[in-house]
Amino acid sequence: MSGSVTVCDHPLLQETLARLRDKKTPSAEFRRLMEDAGVHLGLQALKGLKTKRLPLKTPMATFNAPRVVEPIVLTAILRAGLGILPGLSRFIPTAKIGCIGLYRNEETLKPVRYIVRLPKGLNKSHVLLMDPMLATGGSASASISILKEEGARKITLVCLLATKPGIRRVHKDHKDVPIVTASIDPVLNSIGYIVPGLGDAGDRLYDTN
Ligand code: PRP
Ligand code: URA
Predict the structure, then answer these.
(1) What span, in angstroms and rounded, lies between the C-alpha atoms of 147 and 118?
(2) Looking at residues 172-186, what average pLDDT do you find?
(3) Do 91 and 62 touch, CB atoms closer than 8 A?
(4) Which ligand 2 atom sits nearest the alpha carbon of residue 193?
(5) Residues 122, 147 contacting (CB under 8 angstroms)
(6) Which residues contact 204 (CB under 8 A, 6 or more apart)?
(7) CB within 8 A of 149, min separation 6: which ones?
(8) How far apart are CA 145 and CA 147, in angstroms?
(9) Which atom of ligand 2 lies at the shortest distance from residue 195's CA?
(10) Which residues lie below 8 Å from residue 162, measured CB to CB, with a gap of 6+?
(11) Residue whose CA is closest, atom 7 of ligand 2?
(12) pLDDT for residue 1 is more than 60
């Protein structure tokens, strides 16, 4: 049942995470920090991207430079996934963007689907599924199933915070999907929140509650 999990322990990512956890961090700063964290985690998730040496001329010489030849699709689980994606999409302007709209039913904690918009060519792309929070794992697992139904074969889950039950759930359903995160927090409380966590990611991003 065990799949791959990478915890990025770079001190600057951990500093960014600490500022995101801080309840005093206002929404505008929270959005900026979340984008920065998304770039860091996304680059880690895409480390094995396929490249090919292709010729180009520098001002000094002709040179075979390694170029990315694998299409990339960044897919956000709405709403909070939209907060972690924009920095990475600027870094990779050729990446296509997908959206999967799910919210958790507050009583059952089961994900409810309300919109899915995905680009073509998922079967040939490295798909990053992005959501800051992996709590029970229900939303991520359902989203991976949707991506697979639409043809995706190479998927990596990028989340800022994870829990052990969330990781177990994703890898029980989708052992082939690696997970990249900044922290595995110790507690998933009785109402499905991560502790210490950072609170409700969507509310803190968009200043709602
Ligand atoms: C949050 C979060 C994840 C989900 C994680 O979204 O962004 O999508 O909960 O929980 P799970 O692992 O238990 O499924 P939420 O349902 O609060 O919706 P929102 O992003 O629109 O606020
Ligand atoms: N969703 C959030 O936004 N925060 C949590 O702690 C768990 C799920």
Answers:
(1) 8
(2) 98
(3) no
(4) 6
(5) yes
(6) 25, 27, 30, 198
(7) none
(8) 5
(9) 6
(10) 5, 134, 179, 181, 183, 184, 185
(11) 193
(12) no
Return the structure tokens found at 71.
């299409």
Report the predicted TM-score, pTM, of the whole model to 2 decimal places: 0.96
Which CATH code fits 5-46+71-206? Answer: 3.40.50.2020
- Domain ranges in the chain are 5-46+71-206
- Mean pLDDT, the chain, as a whole number? 96
Give dist(CA 160, CA 148) in Å, integer. 22
H or E element at residue 52: strand 51-57
Nearest CA to ligand 1 atom 22: 202
Other CB atoms within 10 Å distance of the CB of residue 199: 16
Report the candidate in 44, 136, 42 with the shortest Cα–Cα distance to residue 90.
42
| Alpha helical stretches, state H, 46-163 | 81-84, 86-91, 138-149
Active site residue 51: no
Lookup: tokens for 42: 């996304």
Alpha helices by DSSP H, listed for the chain, are: 11-21, 27-45, 81-84, 86-91, 138-149, 164-173, 201-206
Among candidate residues 108, 113, 153, 176, the one labeled active-site is 108
162 lines ligand 2 (CB under 6 A): no
Supply the pLDDT for residue 62. Answer: 97
Residue 65 corresponds to which tokens in the numbers above? 């430079």
